[in-house]
Input
Amino acid sequence: MKKQALITGATSGIGRATAIRLASEGYDIIATGRRAERLEHLKAEIEQQGRKCTVLCFDVRSEEEVKQFLSPLEDIDILVNNAGLAAGLEHIDEGDTRDWDAMIDTNVKGLLYVTRTILPKMHEGGHVFNLGSIAGTEAYENGAVYCASKHAVHAISQSMRADLLKRGIKVTEIRPGMVETEFSEVRFHGDKERADHVYDGVEPLTGDDIAEAIAWAAQLPRHMNVNDMVLMPAQQAGAFYTCRRK
Ligand code: NDP
Ligand code: 8X3
Output
């Protein structure tokens, strides 16, 4: 039987690259996001690879929408909980509470809604990937709520792994440092110039690099799991250490 991979946040960056990569590994893809046109482009690209691609356009922050779109699905082999964002980069006494809601509702609650809906449709041998971050174990100035949301993903991943042991479902947390996607543009509310400076003097990772790691972990033998994968550009050693070349 063909295997199915569900990837949330597949309209851009890491999610899009992972959908294409897993399709090339022989998975049929279910791709989600809020931007319908981008999902249609992805579908066409994956179908050109000879794989099936179902696209589902909804907001992971809405429990109702998550249930409506994901409940009908069956037999999911891989779930990539990727949809997420950082919004704003301010001190806690200046932050916008709408940004805080967006991050907590997407990165934490959205991931939980999707997971709760999909897990009953996963069999032994299934594999969940959660997109955490180096911000899931480090906390930096101006990042209280984003870091808190990724600390939550780290905790959820550890508990989920324990909860699913008996069902033979693996849980891998992917925790990247700098990956050049639309992430920084979203964080700075569309300010592309500011976003570009984040990667000044650094060769960042790409969505394809993260997809490569996910594809590798997904093909390991049944008895072997990568619990936690921290991935960074070679010029970065943590949230506080980046060597920028002039
Ligand atoms: P992008 O902004 O390029 O992609 C984010 C994806 O999430 C988009 O497809 C977007 O789709 C989707 N998304 C966001 N909000 C929602 C929502 N409410 N409902 C449904 N989908 C949503 O960023 P990345 O690819 O970089 O980020 C992917 C994940 O990786 C995130 O969880 C991020 O925190 C994590 N990460 C990223 C790092 C980086 O440096 N880039 C480093 C560490 C972790 P749409 O807008 O169409 O809904
Ligand atoms: C994104 C990476 O360094 O902005 O999760 O926290 S960082």
In short: The two ends are 52 Å apart (CA to CA). The chain is about 40% helix and 15% strand. The longest strand covers residues 170-176. The chain has a mean pLDDT of 98.
